[in-house]
Each structure stands twice: as structure tokens, then as C-alpha cells.
Design a protein that fits this description.
heterodimer, A: about 375 residues, alpha/beta, Rossmann fold, 2 domains, seven-stranded parallel β-sheet, 8 helices, B: about 280 residues, nine-stranded mixed β-sheet, two-stranded antiparallel ribbon, binds flavin-adenine dinucleotide
């Protein structure tokens, strides 16, 4: 260990950078796994997105795609069926009363046990609070590599997982490998991958695994779960729809137009940093580098110029709509749809139009 | 009571520039700051100390110049600061980082008592993995409470803590035993100014500095680049989006027509979203 122990330069390269032959005990690791985030009967959509990505990796590697489904007794059937429909070949199912809600201790214990027993070569989780909490513990227990918050997953020619993630506030991307350890672990951001096709009736193999998790041995207890909505806190990072205003709203009264549109859409409202400084909004509603990073399905920005510090907080949105009087505003460089107009006029019109559209839908019978 | 707070010195990302040709990060001259997320944890630790007595030790693993971040923590009111620095740590990924930090914390325990609580930031603004907290907890065999938005109660006698933890779709109220490791959510508090006395003390106090051997680390193959299973193979700039925003026709149109056109455009680009919105409307 005292061979030339020179401090490496800032960008690491050298010995670790090469693929060695895997140690004997890791050679048997096969198959791609996705850990399903099942909470209170609902699977986080990122798990389906991961099954879509995992399917591609498994096909390329010619291995099975496994889904790990943890839950309370009798609480996993629907999720297992959905996992097959979204592309899983095998479901590893663990049902136990201790798994009714997510807790780090029992989940880490079960995941680790499953990995040791069934030996996947790739293990993917969502880059959510649950996924990041669990993945960090599991990877450390297994002493393997974990790439965080990926936006792209691929396998390269020699079958290694190439996990790409943004870095330095989105100004760079890097591709990370775990060459000499198994499983290769990664978490992936919600909504960067498309939802895979739901193939109703598709089935697969179920592997049930029993674990002993006496509640008395688990130290952390869940005293309550307070669903959002019963609290009045801003929940921007998790919102599906966000409407935000900037200095182009001109004054605090006009800013209310932003809230009105958000209310009609059932979304959250927020703003650029200067609005916090002006006291029009509270700091938990600031969006951007020093505020919240949001990843809604729809982001509507009114009177926001699109500075880089704002941009990095919103770029993950599926659809960005910008309203700005200046057709050269930088926000039009990364928005998908633009309207060159006065926000104080456009927002009320838009609110009214959405209200009409939604109430028309509400009075029509469901047309699924 | 003894609380250990892990902080990381990071480049001020607002000022990071990327070399246009080599795609390397130009760190020269970029000022460093304490990872902003760590300040929420530090403030929470200081408040607990102020209320319950005891000491707050801040620790970091980093280059020698990371002592400035620690000194800053002293000016906020931390009681002592320890820097773990050694060339063997260069190139650490999160697994190697948690390895080194676990030894650092063990050594701190030997010197000043085992911590009742360890705080980490939720994540950093440079590596941004949120993996070191869980890693340190696992290495030290501690329970972890991540994404904590509020400490509801703290009972030194019963050695119990109750917190609000941000989960998907709501808040988990969790109760666990000390010692444990906590990562605080951003925006949960504001770091204090620190008193004049603390400012003076921060300037004068010696930063305790250990190398790998002094922290009790004997297996250097588990440190730095060699102890890191992940390998950064490629760093590159994202492709700029080549099309600008699609502009809704506004010339000569009424606001209401413009609005309808936008709604149609949203429906075209995000049909699933539109379906969900209509479904949501029906459940009113
Ligand atoms: C270290 C650092 C961190 C920062 N962090 C953040 C952050 O987290 N979030 C953030 O948002 N900013 C942040 N900033 C500030 C950022 O650089 C910008 O200054 C800020 O985002 C600008 O806010 P704005 O777009 O509302 O205002 P402006 O840049 O003033 O833009 C106003 C826009 O409104 C348009 N407009 C004017 N009138 C109308 C009208 N009637 N209708 C429609 N449009 C109109 C204008 O054309 C203009 O484009 C940070 C800056 C620094 C240095
Ligand atoms: C571009 C880039 C991408 C990277 N991607 C990965 C990756 O995907 N997987 C991986 O394993 N590593 C990765 N790394 C390496 C990783 O950044 C380092 O391991 C780093 O030392 C700690 O990780 P972090 O900055 O992500 O910390 P986080 O896990 O985000 O930090 C959480 C908290 O842990 C504490 N903490 C973290 N580092 C220290 C420290 N040195 N001293 C004291 N406390 C600390 C702080 O309280 C901090 O708030 C990456 C590095 C870079 C530059």
C-alpha cells in the first residue's frame, strides 16, 4: 500500500479506473433489479420508470429483470401484478408486518439479505427520500459503489453499468462506473425516464422470501403519518404543477394572479429570489439554486427572466411554459412553450380558460 | 450531551466555471463556503446544546484549507473543531468518505465522549449524493433519521428523540433511541450570527488536525481513490437544447384565444398530465 502514494490530481484516474477480473465470489451476480417504492398501497411512479429503463438493460445483458416488492402481509399483490405489466420477469416478494411503512432498519436488513441470497448484478432505486435513505445504507452494508441521482442508465460493450448524472448545478454531466464490485447500484431521478408501456395480463415468476422481523427488535417507531394537504406547508419539490412569478409581476397584488392560477390547477405557487427579498413570498417558496429544486410535470413561469440560478432549479420540469414581455428573455432558451405577453393580462385569461376546461370535464361523465 | 456535526467545505457553485475545451472544472480562484445544507444541521445542534447543555464538535475530512470552514463553525458557536486531512483521502467516493469519517468520529468519541447525536447535511452542493449521512450511520452502526424537518422532542433522560421526517406524500413522525444520526432538511432554521466572543474564539482557537494514522486508520486501501468502488470515467457538458421555446401566436389574438391555444399545446405535449388534471377535476 505504499507504492507511489502520490496524491492524485483533481480529476481521478489511474489504477481504480481499470476493470479487473471480478473476484470469484462476485462472478455469480446476475440480473437487473429494481426496488419498488411501495408506500401505503401506492407505488412511486419512479419505480415504473426504473422498470422501463431496467428492461432495456436486462435485454441488452440477456438477463432477467427483477422487481423487489416489500410490504405488509397481503399488501403486495396489486403492485406485483403491475410490476409484471411494466416489464418485470421476476418479483421478489417479502411480506411482513414490520414492512407496513418505510423504515430504514427493517428495509435495509431485508434488501441486504435479498441481495446476498439472489445476487443481482445491478440494483436500481429511485432518487427519492426513500430511495436515497435506503440505497446509502444498503450500499455501505454491501461495501459496493452507488451512483446518485442519475439521469441516464446504459450498459456499455463489456456489460458494465454506465450511470450518468448531472453535477455542479447541472453545468456538467459525468458517467460513473462500479467496475469491480457487485451489485452496481444507482438511484435515478423521478421523471427523467418515460413511463414504460403497461402490458395488461403480462405475468412472471414470483419468488417469496420469508424474513423474521420482530417489532420488538426494531428501535425506530412510526408514531404518525401526516399526509400533505393536512399541513399548510409549501411542497414545491413534490408538486406536479407549479406556477411561479418573478419581478415581471411588478407588485405584490399582481403576484396574487400567480396564486389564482395555481389554485385552479391544483398546483403549488412560488417565485424567483427577488420576490423573497421583497417579501411577496416566503423563502420556502423560492425556486432555484438557493431555493427549491422542482421537478413538476408542468411549470409556468410568469415574468421571470430565466437566470442560470433559477434555471437549474426548474430544468427537470417535464414542460416549461414561460410568459414574458421580452421575446429575447433567456427563459425562452429553455422553456418548451412561450407566450410573449404581459403576465398581468395573460394569467387571469389563462386562469379563466383552465377553470372552464376543468369544470366542463367535471360535469362530463368519466371518459376513460 | 455531546453532538458531532459533519460539515463539508464546497466550492461556491454560483462561481464554478467549466473549461470549454477540456470540460474540467476550473476551481482556481473559486471561493469556498460551508456546504449550505450543513448550516441547518449545525444550527439545530447548537439549539439543542443551548437548551440541554453539553458540547458541539464539528468535524470535516478535507484538504488542509478546509480549516477555514471549521473556523467559521466556531464563530457560530461550535465548541471544538477537528480536521481530518491526509493525501490518502484524495479521490474518495462516498463509501471511502464514510469510512474515514467513521474513524474520525470514533476518535472524537475517545477524546471527548461518545456523541448522543450526529448531524450531517441533507446533501452537498458539489457531490450532491446525500449518501454520506446514511453511510456514516451504517459504519457506526447507528440509527438514522434523514430529511428531518423538525425535532419534535428530545429527552436526554429517556434517551429518546421524536422527529418529523419528510416522506413521499407526507410527514412521518418517528421516534427512536439515542445515539442516532440526523440529516436536516433545508429551510428548517436560520443559522445564528454568533456572538462577538465566539467570533474572537473562532479566530484564536486552534483547529485540531489529524492525519489518517492519528485518527486510527490502519487500512489505507479502504481510503481515497483506492477505497472507492465508483469510478468517474467521463465528464462532459450537456448538449444545449437546440430549439428555443415554441411560441404561441399572439399577434392580433385575444388573451382568451391565446389561453385556449396554450391549453391545447399543453394537452398535445403532455397528454397524460392533461388526463390526470381532468380526472382530478372530476373528483372535486
Ligand atoms: C448566489 C446566487 C444565488 C441565487 N439564487 C437564486 C435562486 O435560487 N432563485 C432565483 O430565482 N434567483 C436566484 N438568484 C438571482 C438570479 O441571479 C436572478 O437575479 C433572479 O432569478 C431574477 O429574478 P426575476 O427573473 O424575477 O427578475 P428579473 O431578472 O428582473 O426578470 C424580470 C423579467 O420579467 C419580464 N417582465 C417585465 N414586465 C413583465 C410583464 N408585465 N409581463 C411579463 N414579463 C415581464 C422581464 O422581461 C424580465 O425578463 C441568485 C443569485 C445569486 C448571485
Ligand atoms: C461530480 C461528482 C459526482 C460524484 N458522484 C458520486 C456518486 O455518484 N457516488 C459516490 O459514491 N460518490 C460520488 N462523488 C464523490 C463524492 O462527492 C465524495 O465522496 C464526497 O466526499 C462526499 O459526497 P457528497 O459530496 O455527495 O456528500 P453528501 O453525501 O451529499 O453529503 C451529505 C452530508 O455528509 C457530510 N459530509 C460529506 N462529505 C463530508 C466530508 N468530507 N467531511 C465531513 N462531512 C461530510 C456533510 O454533512 C454533508 O452535508 C462524486 C463527486 C463529484 C465531484
Amino acid at each position: 500500500m505504499n507504492e507511489k502514494a502520490k496524491a492524485p490530481a483533481a480529476e481521478p484516474k489511474s489504477r481504480a479506473n481499470q476493470k479487473k477480473e471480478l473476484p470469484e465470489h462476485l462472478k455469480s451476480y446476475k440480473h437487473v433489479w429494481v426496488m419498488l417504492e411501495l408506500e401505503r398501497g401506492v407505488v412511486h411512479p419512479v419505480s415504473w420508470e426504473l422498470l422501463g429503463e431496467g428492461r432495456k438493460l436486462a435485454d441488452q445483458l440477456k438477463v432477467d429483470l427483477g422487481a423487489v416488492v416489500l410490504g405488509p402481509p397481503g399488501g403486495t399483490d396489486a403492485s406485483v401484478a403491475d410490476a409484471f405489466a411494466y416489464g418485470a420477469d421476476v418479483c421478489y416478494v417479502v411480506e411482513n408486518p414490520a414492512l407496513v411503512d418505510y423504515r430504514n432498519e427493517p428495509y435495509t436488513a431485508v434488501m441486504t439479505e435479498l441481495v446476498h441470497k439472489y445476487q443481482p448484478e445491478i440494483l436500481l432505486l429511485g432518487a427519492t427520500n426513500l430511495g436515497r435513505d435506503l440505497a446509502g445504507s444498503v450500499a455501505t452494508t454491501l461495501l459496493t459503489g452507488l451512483t446518485a441521482d442519475c439521469t441516464e442508465l446504459a450498459v456499455d460493450a463489456d456489460g458494465s453499468l454506465a450511470a450518468t448524472r448531472p453535477t455542479f448545478g447541472g453545468s456538467l454531466l459525468c458517467t460513473i462506473y462500479t467496475l469491480n464490485y457487485r451489485p452496481q447500484m444507482a438511484t435515478m431521478r423521478p421523471r427523467v425516464a418515460p413511463m414504460p408501456l403497461y402490458q395488461a395480463g403480462r405475468t412472471g415468476r414470483i419468488v417469496r422470501h420469508d424474513v423474521s422481523l420482530p417489532e420488538d427488535d426494531i428501535i425506530t417507531k412510526i408514531l404518525a403519518f401526516l399526509p400533505d394537504g393536512s399541513t399548510d406547508k409549501a411542497n414545491l419539490p413534490y408538486a406536479d404543477i407549479v406556477v411561479a412569478g418573478g419581478l415581471g409581476m411588478q407588485n405584490a397584488d399582481n403576484y396574487l394572479l400567480v396564486r389564482q392560477l395555481a389554485d385552479v390547477l391544483g398546483g403549488e405557487w412560488g417565485g424567483s429570489r427577488p420576490l423573497v427579498q421583497k417579501g411577496w413570498i416566503s423563502s420556502d417558496r423560492q425556486i432555484g439554486q438557493t431555493g427549491k429544486t422542482i421537478r413538476p410535470r408542468l411549470y409556468i413561469a410568469a415574468g421571470i427572466s430565466g437566470a442560470i440560478q433559477h434555471r437549474v432549479g426548474v430544468e427537470g420540469a417535464d414542460l416549461i411554459v414561460a410568459i414574458n414581455t421580452d421575446k429575447n428573455a433567456p427563459i425562452f432558451d429553455f422553456a418548451h412553450v412561450g407566450i410573449v405577453a404581459d403576465a398581468a393580462l395573460a394569467l387571469p385569461a389563462l386562469t379563466e380558460a383552465f377553470r372552464k376546461r376543468l369544470s366542463a370535464a367535471a360535469t362530463r361523465p368519466a371518459a376513460e | 450531551m455531546h453532538i458531532v456535526v459533519c460539515v463539508k467545505q464546497v466550492p461556491d457553485s454560483a462561481q464554478i466555471r467549466v473549461h470549454p475545451v477540456t470540460n474540467t472544472i476550473m476551481r482556481q480562484g473559486v471561493p469556498t463556503i460551508i456546504n449550505p445544507y450543513d448550516l441547518f444541521s449545525l444550527e439545530e445542534a447548537l439549539r439543542l446544546r443551548d437548551r440541554h447543555g453539553g458540547e458541539v464538535t464539528v468535524v470535516t475530512m478535507g484538504p488542509p484549507m478546509a480549516d477555514t470552514a471549521l473556523r467559521k463553525c466556531l464563530t457560530f458557536g461550535a465548541d471544538r473543531a477537528v480536521l481530518l486531512t491526509d493525501r490518502f483521502f484524495a479521490g474518495s467516493d462516498t463509501l471511502a468518505t464514510s469510512y474515514a469519517l467513521s474513524f474520525l468520529i470514533k476518535k472524537v468519541s475517545e477524546n471527548w465522549g461518545a456523541p448522543d447525536l450526529i448531524f450531517c447535511g441533507k446533501q452537498t452542493i458539489d457531490g450532491d449524493t446525500a449518501q454520506v449521512g446514511p453511510g456514516v450511520a451504517k459504519r457506526l452502526n447507528l440509527l438514522q433519521l434523514t430529511y428531518v424537518s423538525k425535532i419534535e422532542s428530545f429527552d436526554m433522560e429517556a434517551r429518546e428523540i421524536t422527529v418529523d421526517r419528510r416522506a413521499e406524500g407526507g410527514i412521518q413522525v418517528l421516534k427512536t433511541k439515542l445515539p442516532c444520526l440526523i440529516t436536516m432538511l433545508e429551510g428548517t432554521n436560520d443559522i445564528r450570527r454568533g456572538s462577538i466572543e465566539d467570533a474572537l474564539r473562532g479566530a484564536r482557537t486552534e483547529i485540531i488536525t489529524w492525519n489518517a494514522a492519528q485518527a486510527g486508520i490502519t487500512d489505507l486501501t479502504l481510503c481515497g481513490l483506492r477505497g472507492s468502488p465508483t469510478i468517474v470515467k467521463k465528464v462532459f457538458a450537456p448538449k444545449p437544447r437546440d430549439e428555443k421555446a415554441f411560441q404561441i401566436e399572439v399577434e392580433g389574438k385575444s388573451m382568451s384565444d391565446i389561453s385556449d391555444a396554450l391549453i391545447a399545446e399543453i394537452g398535445k405535449r403532455q397528454p397524460v398530465l392533461e388526463r390526470d388534471m381532468l380526472k382530478g377535476a372530476m373528483s372535486y
